[in-house]
Specification:
The complex is a heterodimer. By secondary structure, chain A is mainly alpha-helical. Chain A has a domain of 211 residues: MetI-like (MetI-like fold, Orthogonal Bundle), CATH 1.10.3720.10. Helix content of chain A is 72%, strand content 0%. Chain A has 14 helices and no strands. In chain A, α13 runs antiparallel to α14. Chain B is mainly alpha-helical. Chain B contains ten helices and no strands. Chain B has a single domain, classed as MetI-like (MetI-like fold, Orthogonal Bundle). Chain B is elongated and about 75 Å long. The chains are: A mainly alpha, B mainly alpha. At the A-B interface, α1, α6, α7, α12 and α13 of A face α4, α5, α6, α8 and α10 of B.
Amino acid sequence: MLMAGSRCLPIQAGLDRNDDVLRRLGQGAVTVWLAATLAFLALRVLPGDAIETQLVFSGAGAEVLAERRAVLGLDAPLQVQYTQFIGGLLVGELGYSLQDGQSVMLKISQQIVPTATLALSALVFAVFLGISLGIAVEIRVGWGVSWLARLVTDLALSTPIYWTGTLAIYLFTVWLGILPSAGAGTVNHLVLPVTVLGFHTAGAIARVTAANLREVLLASYVRTAYAKGLPGRAVLLRHILPSALPPVIAVIALQAGFLLSGTVITESLFVRPGIGRLLLDSVLRQDYPVVQGVVVFSAVVYVALSLAADVLYRLLDPRVTIA
Amino acid sequence: MWRSAFVLIIIIGLSLLSPLLTDYDPLKTNTDQLNQPPSGEHLLGTDLLGRDVLSRLLYGGQRSLWVTSLAALVAVLPGLCLGLLAGWFGGWVDRGIMTAVHTLLAFPALLLALICLTLFGRGPVPLALATGLAQMAGYVSVVRTTVIGARTQMYVEVAQSVGAADGWILMHHILPNVRETVLAFAGVVFSYSLLNSAALSFLGLGGEPGVPDWGVMLAESRMAFRVAPWVSIAPGLAITLTVMAVNRLADQVGRPPRT
């Protein structure tokens, strides 16, 4: 039997635990297809197109624009373009950029490296910070510790990242001059963006950790464990955390999805390359294939992470067994 | 709880009463007084165009809070209806709605926002749509989960067994029992809407020329941060305080009373 207890997170709501993995994969494929279709349609509804955006200041005449469109297949009827796009998706082909003719797959894979480096480092930092903060808020070590942890959690959730980022840049780059604020490549370039992004991501993790702990702390088996004289640390490690942490996985997975799809604010702020910047630039240039490619990529990441979170949850939660 | 509500009322009151509280025009530039630090004349200093920061903060609050409230409505009203339907009826209704929800969640929020802003132009309503739509999917899931929890309760079965109609049960039994969660999460949606709409302004996508707004103030202040950090501190603190107060309020509303 599967139990989706009352403390099942809202975020996980869409994950029906009774489904087997195959069916979930099927649903995931539908999600990716729908997201891709939505992107395809939305891009065509927008006024103008890539050719116009590229050549608007060149003084090229209407026939030149039409010729370029014909070369790139943009004058084909919508259903032909759509069939080509979905057909390409099925064989793992995303097409070529209208801007520079580069393969979309290549463009995305080039941007994955900086995005994933930033996202995964920030996530690791956020998980440690978030879980520690959550524990510090709920487990009474001392009044001051809980109060401080709660304040830090609140700040992480309520300060705009572009503001803390700006403050951090001025403190560490402009005034102290110890860390670079722009660019990518070395470990030093990662310190500021990872800390800022990780700090804000930690807020959500801390909040959920604290909420779960609060409920587990009231459970009778925790009282029993204390009553039979187990030391506090043992109760925390053996009874409280194993029940309180598995639901946090869903939030971590969700945050990982956001981070991996490119955090355009962090990337703009610290002048880093990445998926978010690629998406923003491609939309502004109406580079359809690249935008569609990024949407497919984000959707696949989302589907894969929610599936992974579900499987992990089943493996880790002591009360949930795989049916 | 009362402290957070009090802070919120003060913030809303200050921005609504801004014409009474400041004599400065938030748009009037003054080249004699660029980047002046806070003083008796300009309580929060002036910005890189010599505009009074306090008046921009107060008037900017009107616009920011208005856009954010609209965005929260865009997410909450349809989200509530869809979540109730999905949670209550289950079956194909649920499957259909949840497929749409997953698609929206899988779709990059930035792209959704860009599409809204390109299609509908600039202004409070497009900006609210751009931020609100992206939050709707999450809201649907929360409502749905809560409704599913309430649906299996004994009093619902009793109501059904005496022949109450679906609509009656939804309005009189389900809604009152999911009220706290629904309200609390609406607060969270409001917070994210404020942060996200300001983020769009930061990227140069949300603001309108000539309309003061906290996000626009933050974006502009970066250019002159080194000489005039106070221009950035004021709107940053305003956003932080508002979001923190709303979050704490939501936390209190959503937490079941301790027994």
